[in-house]
Prior knowledge:
- This protein has 508 residues and is α+β, with helices and mostly antiparallel strands.
- The chain folds into four domains: 131 residues, no CATH class; 114 residues, Immunoglobulin-like (Sandwich), CATH 2.60.40.10; 151 residues, Lamin Tail domain (Immunoglobulin-like), CATH 2.60.40; 95 residues, Immunoglobulin-like.
- It is built from six helices and 28 strands.
- The longest helix has 23 residues.
Amino acid sequence: MDYMVYYEPETGRVFPFEYDGNSSFLSTAATSASWTPFKNVTSVNYPLLNKLLNVPEWRQRYLAHYRTILAETFNPTRLHPMIDTMNARIASLVAADTKKLTTTAAYTSGVPSLKTFVTNRYNYLSNNVEVAQQGSVILGMDQYDSSGRWNVAPLPGQVVRIRVKVANAAQTASVRLYHAEGWVGNFQRMDMWDDGLHFDSLPGDGLYGAVLPGHAAMTVVRYYAEAVANNTAQSLTYFPAGAEHDVMVYRVQGGALRNGLVINEFMAMNQGGPVDDIGENDDWIELHNVSNQAVNAGRYVLTDNPLNTTKWKFPRNTVVPAGGYLIVWADEDSSQGPYHANFKLSGLGETLYLYDSNTVLQDEVIYPNQVPDSSWARIPNGSGPFARRAHTIAANNNFALNVPNNLWRKLDFRLYPNPGDKQVHWEISGIHENNGSGPGGEDANSSFDAEMVNAAGQVLWKSSGALPQQTDASNPGGVVDVSDWPQGAYWFRMRSGNRVYLRTWIKR
């Protein structure tokens, strides 16, 4: 077997890369005592093996990953189907090859021989005394912010609490947490505790806790856990099992520290809430500029896939005013307008990313399962962690209305013409209906509060009092003079009784 090595300057580590390893597949070596998991470890002629694998802790780390390779990769269940698949792809090509270095018969008989080698080698390695020495079983690991909320990214400077659950507490001597700042770099180690004093529930219950320090906005933090078994060898177990190349990650919130634009609120299960400019209940995302300067968001990107950082780009002329708001409809239907994205939000939870025009991450939101017609919003507005509440689309999240989700309507309210240029008419129908209960219920309220706001959240028109009757219509309503308003998108919001009406209106 031959190797190449790579020196990583960020960590000072050297990584070996094996190639030309066919000698390790000799059928006579499958169960040979000369090919144990510790071949050449006792020989000073192999100083890397001889020195590292005779250090007890490093030997146990090596064994832990050896077990992972056997469990996840080198086993008959995984490799036999892979061998069959590859054979089906190349068998006819081998037979037709006139320059091959062996015969077709030798190749054909070699396929079952390779399977036999895999089975025999797997059994031999699994039965090695040290490999068979099992350690603790880690059932899982959870991350909480400083307020105790599960899987919520912390704010800048906030600590993060980590919990690890082991299945066999009596057989676990200790649990350690490894953590590192950034995508590349060495890990630091800290102890975890099962004493009831470190966010770990009860003493001795197999639930271990530790607290990671706070970091600056947008910092990436990697971490993983190591359990030490209460046996003579002090066998090690890792979570995730593939650590350190496979680890847990979170990113500190704080996109506003980049240029002022943040993901401020969104609704991933819009069934009866706000409607878009053509009257559809689509998912939506609210961007908010928390700075005191306008942000040119042209060619910015919203995506729910970190591997696709160009998924949906904002129009080139997109500008979000200082303190302003911008609504993007996540309806997977870009034909409906310039601010209709080509993807939808998952109600089961996912991650939403905002990149600038240079593909620099500006904000990132990891959210859990959602409920219909409730939004996920930053509280305090523009800077705080996310919380579920009644929506405040295109407005300050600090003043959300506590309106029951099942009371949002769209069919009994009209806003026309839309688009328009000089006047906008609004009209309510069914004001004396209350879900079949007849007149006189809470819905039969003749008073209202209404306003129209621009994309920056500025109130341009406001009215309240008794619902006005229109002289040429049977339903109450009114007219707003918009002749001197600039072109763009506006929001009409009104509350009457226990109903809230919200529509987008476009000025031509």
